[in-house]
């Protein structure tokens, strides 16, 4: 597969690089498990939302935020196994074409958190090809960390949704999100300016 | 079967401000500033979906799966925009996980309209079995739900339930019974 000459990166490192680029209170949705653990570990921001279940829904939740706040950039971090569970979401997003949505897929080729069982993304399924086939023309593999940062910058000034896929190693997330769903939601709504802090 | 799939009641084919069930639903959504309405289609919901598409107030679109629609309106709620999901009974049957892991624990006022298949003249055994799972799932999570059978009660139930969902930050399911919509019948 032509995509396999991409460098194997690390989720926490890549997530930290992304967060360091955010200067305009961009929203970030962390998917189930490791994607939100590393988002938490990269340093909590009021505009972060952490999923505690609902596997595969990081992109749909981010789409909802993007439709509610079209002037804010919205990022979503999703694992390969999670995305494979909800591939239909890609074609929904391609149909709606939100100009402010940026999807990041952390592809380790495994269901890391449940015991590292291989996903089809390890061998036969190409996440970027699937995204392009779903109608998301602006989908690309990040070749290395610098390329990832370049792709993020390009996506942040674009007028169409972008998907960036990153090959990552088999390491678990380095943090543990505090699992208080009401607090997570309430702080996120404060961070988005929807609610005033108490 | 293909013909039966096409059958809808005569009252389901009217406009939006004529006192039809779907006209009342549309106006009630609007009055409550619910502008984002993703759905997975259902034959009985067709006139409502058509009129939502025709009204620029609404952003309405099909999703590939019902839980995707729940994720979308949940994100939108947190971003300050209200939404509602339209589905049929079998679509609701796919939602237990997202209800229990997202809408309920995060206290999101998820508003669901469920076109009830599987009862009062159902011709598809599978649909009738799926229907029997719906209320036990709702009850197991202590979720508010109402089965709407009468046109004269529709506006009251829908309007009050939407307001209660928002103020109590809790999901609600409004089940549109065949007595209200005419349902889908096997007339052959
Ligand atoms: C509907 C559902 N099925 C299964 C699970 C169990 N589960 C939790 S995380 C996960 C794997 C996620 O894989 P991926 O998105 O690739 O993330 P990774 O663990 O590799 O970082 C699974 C199977 C679940 N939580 N929900
Ligand atoms: Mg994985």
Cα shape of chain B: globular
Overall domain count of chain A: 1
The named CATH superfamily of chain A: Thiamin diphosphate (ThDP)-binding fold, Pyr/PP domains
Distance N to C terminus of chain B: 9 Å
CATH topology of chain B: Rossmann fold
In the CATH hierarchy, what is the class of chain A?
Answer: Alpha Beta
By DSSP (H or I, 4+ residues per run), the number of helices of chain A equals 8
Q: Please report the distance between the alpha carbons of the first and last residues of chain A.
A: 53 Å
How confident overall, as mean pLDDT of chain A? 97
Given as residue ranges, the uncertain stretches of chain A (5+ residues, pLDDT < 50) are: none
- The class by helix and strand makeup of chain A works out as alpha/beta
Number of domains of chain B: 1
Major β-sheet of chain A, in short?
6 strands, parallel
Helix content of chain A: 25-40%
* Major sheet strand order of chain B: 4-5-7-6
CATH hierarchy, class of chain B: Alpha Beta
The global form of chain A is: globular
Helix content of chain B: 40-55%
Question: Which homologous superfamily in CATH is the superfamily of chain B?
Answer: Thiamin diphosphate (ThDP)-binding fold, Pyr/PP domains
């Amino acid at each position: 597969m032509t995509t396999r000459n991409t460098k194997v990166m690390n989720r926490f490192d890549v997530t930290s690089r992304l967060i360091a680029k955010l200067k305009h209170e961009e929203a970030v949705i962390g998917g189930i498990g490791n994607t939100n653990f590393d988002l938490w570990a990269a340093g909590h921001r009021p505009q972060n939302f952490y999923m505690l279940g609902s596997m595969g829904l990081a992109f749909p939740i981010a789409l909802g935020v993007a439709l509610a706040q079209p002037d804010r950039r919205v990022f979503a971090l999703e694992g390969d196994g999670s995305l494979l569970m909800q591939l239909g979401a890609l074609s929904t997003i391609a149909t709606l074409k939100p100009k402010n949505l940026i999807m990041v897929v952390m592809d380790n080729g495994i269901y890391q958190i449940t015991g590292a069982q291989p996903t089809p993304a390890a061998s036969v399924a190409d996440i970027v090809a699937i995204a392009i086939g779903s109608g998301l023309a602006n989908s690309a593999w990040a070749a290395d960390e610098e390329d990832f940062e370049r792709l993020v910058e390009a996506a942040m000034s674009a007028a169409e949704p972008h998907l960036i896929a990153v090959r990552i190693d088999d390491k678990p997330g380095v943090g543990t999100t505090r699992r208080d769903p009401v607090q997570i939601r309430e702080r996120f709504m404060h961070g988005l300016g929807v609610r005033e802090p108490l | 079967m293909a013909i039966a799939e096409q059958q809808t009641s005569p009252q389901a084919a009217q406009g939006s401000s004529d006192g039809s069930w779907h006209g009342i639903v549309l106006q009630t959504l609007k009055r409550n500033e619910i502008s984002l309405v993703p759905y997975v289609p259902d034959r009985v919901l067709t006139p409502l979906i058509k009129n939502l598409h025709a009204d620029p107030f609404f952003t309405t679109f099909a999703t590939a799966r019902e839980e995707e629609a729940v994720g979308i309106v949940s994100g939108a709620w947190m971003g300050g925009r209200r939404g509602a999901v339209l589905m049929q009974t079998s679509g609701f049957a796919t939602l237990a996980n997202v209800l229990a892991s997202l809408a309920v624990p995060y206290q999101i006022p998820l508003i669901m309209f469920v076109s009830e298949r599987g009862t009062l003249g159902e011709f598809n055994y599978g649909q009738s079995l799926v229907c029997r799972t719906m209320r036990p799932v709702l009850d197991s999570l202590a979720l508010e739900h109402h089965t709407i059978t009468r046109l004269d009660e529709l506006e009251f139930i829908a309007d009050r339930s939407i307001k209660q969902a928002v103020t109590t930050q809790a999901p609600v399911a409004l089940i549109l019974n065949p007595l209200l919509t005419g349902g889908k019948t096997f007339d052959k």
